[in-house]
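dude i think i finally got it to work??
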Amino acid sequence: MTDSSIQFIATADIADIHNKDVRSCDIQFRNFGGRIEFCGEIHTISCFQDNGLVKKTLNSPGEGKVLVVDGHASMHTALMGDMIAEAGVNNGWAGVIINGPIRDSAEVAKMEFGCKALGTNPRKSNKDGIGEENIVLRLGGIDFIPGQYVYADSDGVVVSENPVEPE
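look at this
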């Protein structure tokens, strides 16, 4: 579930109203989750063809946060499947944004969970837990900074230093 203190606002509206105060991601992510509109505080992971940290993180309390994963755009192995996504749902994560592929997309689409990724690949990844957590990620021309806020919908992804207030 999304943190109830953060109200979702459409990314186009955010860009119109708060243009100078937000950053818009250039990557054309695809929607895979059952929740198309989601937002929350950013938590980050950088990993390469290894989803051990993703699994560990989504199995911990999410408190409405959004996990942003830099898989370095490798399409070789999926960084999340239905079981890990289900753990995210059960632990209160609002969703994930993955610079890489997922798998089990038909099942993920049935979940009340936000999921944006580059695409799909049925091949599972390594599970060694190799990567970095809570670091600044540079994706699509913008920085995703832990503790800042991300808003995602069918129009794209925007990041704000603070929760966006409706006008």
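The radius of gyration is 14 Å.
im so relieved honestly
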